Amino acid sequence: MATRATGEPMKAADMTDDVFEKTFQAALKDAGKDKAGGAPAISAEEAEKLKSAFEKPEFRKMFQEYVDEISNPDHREEYEQYLTQLENDQKVPEGMELLRPEAGFCIKCFDQDDKKVFINICHVAQVAKPSVTTTAEGQQWSVPNTMGPPRMEKDNKGVPSITFDVAYNPETLQRAAASKPFKDMIIEIARDAVAKKWSVHANKTVTLTPKWHVLKRVACMGGKPAIMSVRKGGAAGAAGAGGDTGERKPSKSRAPAKAAGGAGAAA
């Protein structure tokens, strides 16, 4: 992605033709592979047609407008209004449900390139409660969670940074508030889940450094968690939230009772 000197993503309309062309060609090259790096996601013929289309000024203009639209924070609000309207009209697809997580706390992390990553730890009743089993090796926690797609939110300096929402059952956050080891554990579960999902979206391996801390006076980066559209039943447990819509992939993560705590829980 083309960026300014400040690190802020550059709008397509602000790019020179040369920068836009290089950005497009890089995206086109990545599009030739699937998410696992195997079979092509689009055929050579489709890629050639797309390349030809970009030679037409009117198509480039339409594409630039589209990129700028989905990069606009107002797009999220419009999308959530659309989901709410579907729900009110009882037109949510069969087998799907909308979740409205509530804010818990926010952690600030860094990727391997030292870029900021924000993870909003949220809670919603439809995700199953945590459970623990005792084995010969000790206690093993199963902590269901569901995650929304990545989005860009501005930090306190106004710089857009990639942000994820990871939602647990309210009981999970209650336990976290009472136990620092448990809180550290669910943070590590969320960090692992974000790295895996981000790797899929970025079509490359993404890792988060051990450096992280919980933000003070910020319950949720972006104001509030985004609405999540998930399949009923599935991996997040019997409470309801689960499945894989392609954008939201709930998971049932297991971790020892004492997980690594990163850089600490204080900002």
Please give the structural blueprint.
Blueprint: H1 17-31, H2 44-53, H3 57-71, H4 73-88, E1 96-99, E2 102-111, E3 116-123, E4 131-135, E5 138-147, E6 151-154, E7 160-168, H5 170-178, H6 180-202, E8 208-214, E9 228-232, E10 241-242, E11 251-256
Parallel strand pairs: 3-7
Antiparallel strand pairs: 1-9, 2-3, 2-8, 4-5, 5-7, 5-11, 6-7, 9-10
Task: Kindly describe this structure.
By secondary structure, the chain is α+β, with helices and mostly antiparallel strands. The protein folds into two domains: about 10-70, no CATH class; about 95-255, no CATH class. The chain has helices spanning about 15-30, 45-55, 55-70, 75-90, 170-180, 180-200, and strands at about 95-100, 100-110, 115-125, 130-135, 140-145, 150-155, 160-170, 210-215, 230, 240, 250-255. Strands 2, 3, 4, 5, 6, 7, 8 and 11 form an eight-stranded mixed β-sheet that branches. Strands 1-9-10 form a three-stranded antiparallel β-sheet, covered by helices on one side. Strand 4 and strand 5 form a beta hairpin. It is globular and about 65 Å long.
Please give a handful of descriptors for the protein shown.
disordered C terminus; alpha+beta; 3-stranded antiparallel sheet; PIH1 N-terminal domain-containing protein; PIH1/Kintoun_subfamily; 267 residues; PIH1_N; 11 strands; 8-stranded mixed sheet
Provide the β-strand percentage band: 25-35%
The total of helices stands at 6
Total number of domains: 2
Order of helices and strands: HHHHEEEEEEEHHEEEE
Name the shape in a single word.
Answer: globular
How far apart, in Å, are the first and last alpha carbons? 30 Å
What number is the mean pLDDT?
Answer: 72
Q: Low-confidence stretches at least 5 residues in length (pLDDT < 50)?
A: 31-40, 237-267
Kindly provide the radius of gyration, computed on alpha-carbon positions and rounded to a whole number of angstroms: 20 Å
Strands, total number: 11
Main sheet summary: 8 strands, mixed
| Sheet/helix structural class | alpha+beta
What share of the residues lie within helices? 25-40%
